[in-house]
Design goal:
alpha/beta; 11 strands; eleven-stranded mixed beta sheet
Length: about 250
Amino acid sequence: MERLLPTPERAPADEAGLAHWLARAYAYPPGFHVRANMVASLDGASVWRSRSGGLSGPADQALLAVLRALADVIVVGAETARRERYGPAEEHPHLLASRLAAGRPRTPALAVVSRRLDLPPPLLEQPAPPGAGTLVFTTRSAPPDARRAVERHGLEVVEAGEERVEVHRMLEVLAGRGMRAVLTEGGPRLLAQFQAAGALDELCLTLSPLVTAGDAPRILRGPALGPDPQPMRLEGLLADDSFLFTRYAPG
């Protein structure tokens, strides 16, 4: 892997060196910061055969693991959690020591957004490390029976809206709990809500060297943002084996 922007530099070849190199390159700025990480094919598909992993590669997986290790909380929509078979976040073998030295939990917390509270079994059944539990953001109108079922598994259910989860209310809850380094992994509907709310500080987009055709969604799926497209500014660019790893901020 090599960095092309902002300054050219080749990454270390060993796994541990690469992890620390990426951690420095993607370190969160001070204060509250919301980062999104997505992957897309050359023709704009966000999934292949219903899963984003079909567009990924080893370097993309290495970057994803680092981005998770840097975060305080990972936010994901329930549809994506079901499709991608989410469970609690895993420890990063090379960045765990730095998390513990900073007084942070061994892994980031997980925040799942769900109106129906229809969660995949791994989220309900796999225990999270101490201090890094799973929050479930839902609405006041969520089915009471489903809410009780989720709570029986030890997950905390938080209301953040009447008929739909409101992004700013959810982020206020996370900030109030000291979770300031936020990573959202979508899916496309949730990411569109973040963008529409003006809540996205950074977009990390992996451009996969594949074309798929078909009718897969784009990385944002929702109503148009307004009369004009939202401009974005390129902040960083890495490359590895025909993959491009971009970082954009609102322009």
